[in-house]
């Protein structure tokens, strides 16, 4: 069995990634990270961000909302203090980048080009920021502009992380593909609002992003549609808690999967998903993932 | 770090809504330090999704004790755990409380906040002089008093209704105690566990946020280390969901940099 997956210039040892924002920089649990296909870092912005005021998390049956607001140390500190450690990981390191303006994506892409990281995930889908984020990702023309800039200014693999908030991700995926993206991640969290019982917003950032198992049916629906509409690989994300969930996403057309919220419950969740996938491949005598990826469309 | 399944060797209700669980968890018992917590899965399925962080109350050989109050659906589910059940726990997590030596230490616990102070007292008492002040609404809700006394520590009590000890809030009692004791004592010439400690050089407190804020105000400028209770996502420092604003900007990620933090430096 060859479990590798190649996206753009980057070959991942297996199809399981830790999703952005749910595994920090992969350094807290190196023994887990080392055995994954890769780790997608917390989003990095040009300037440091303190993030949203607390509370930042709200739980509901089947999922949660977060409102972290892209807290991160900023590009310079990231490169100086984090990258020297992430470069020693044995997995691929994908840096999630978020710009407050279209131009900032280009600048981040250009400046990361010389850093020892493997790929960029262009975040046009964060629901928790006032400028940019999901607002960019709702407009195919903006997704195209941002992807074009990033593509032009880096030689590294470019992945675009899509939103499905008030936009058909098929349209934005096509825009990303046309602009030269190597892959799209489908999907980021969905907009959500939680109230405190007295009519006031519960989260300090007011709105949040819905994640967890409740997201899975919709995320799977999006992956199925997007994978049928574009030729570039789709990375499935949204509510993957188990190997069975990951198999569903591959079946729906994803070449890789990202495990997110499950990492909060169990820091070995992504590794468990990978070990389960490996066992699945062995049991079914798979030479690679081709027989699984996209089989839903072939069977329906 | 893998979650571990631990056998519950004793589960009981201490008073209305407050529960004690002793877990057989030899590795955790060996590693855990005061101030740290375990992140407990209260159901087998995805509802509730997240674990519940609970400070370690005590350790005895290979066993770890958790004492918690039912505050919502998750802790209500945890309260239904019985002796002989298995519990899925992750930990120990969090930064241990500072290890102090030759200090006059005051412990101040309010309600369920009494629980994590017991383990701290057990570990700090040999190298320091300590006094313990515990508060609750009523006598029935005072927790672990016998356990603190069994450590040979002076314990003073406060209840809102006066049913035991001082009538009033424990922070008031702490302030009176501190003011009556004059200048900071030196470590010479005093009994190791003297009933009348000196003015404390360190205070550890755990209780509701308003209590902690009140204590900081009353004791200023004496530094107060507080066990902060707050919603967490991962408990391991990877999700950035448990932010406590710092005075002067930024946040403390208190699952990782706490849950014991210098209260004088954060916005409560």
Explain how this protein is built.
The complex is a heterodimer of chains A (300) and B (268). In chain A, helix 3 (102-112) packs parallel to helix 5 (140-153), helix 6 crosses helix 7 and helix 8 crosses helix 10. The longest helix of chain A has 15 residues, at 269-283. The radius of gyration of chain A is 18 Å and the shape is globular. Chain A has helices at residues 30-33, 75-86, 102-112, 134-137, 140-153, 169-178, 216-229, 243-251, 262-265, 269-283, 295-299, and strands spanning 5-7, 10-12, 16-18, 38-40, 57-60, 63-66, 92-97, 119-123, 157-161, 183-186, 190-193, 207-211, 234-237, 254-259. Chain A has 300 residues and is of the alpha/beta class. Chain A contains eleven helices and 14 strands. The mean pLDDT of chain A is 97. Chain A has a single domain, classed as Aldolase class I (TIM Barrel, Alpha-Beta Barrel). In chain A, strands 3-4-7-8-9-10-13-14 form an eight-stranded parallel beta barrel, surrounded by six helices. Chain B is α/β, with parallel strands linked by helices. Chain B folds into two domains: 4-93, Elongation Factor Tu (Ef-tu), domain 3 (Beta Barrel); 104-265, Nucleotide-binding domain of ferredoxin-NADP reductase (FNR) module (Rossmann fold). Chain B has helices spanning 26-31, 73-78, 115-124, 145-150, 170-180, 209-219; strands spanning 4-15, 18-24, 37-41, 52-60, 63-69, 86-93, 104-110, 129-136, 155-159, 166-167, 202-206, 224-227, 243-245, 251-253, 260-262. In chain B, the strands form three sheets. In chain B, strands 10-9-8-7-11-12-15 form a seven-stranded mixed sheet, with helices on both faces. Chain B has a six-stranded antiparallel β-barrel with strand order 1-2-5-4-3-6. In chain B, strand 7 (104-110), helix 3 (115-124) and strand 8 (129-136) form a beta-alpha-beta unit. The two termini of chain B are 31 Å apart. Chain A binds chain B through residues 21-24, 28-29, 42, 50-57, 59, 61-64, 66, 68, 71, 212-213, 241, 261, 263-268, and chain B through 1-3, 41, 46-51, 90, 230-234, 236-245, 249-251.
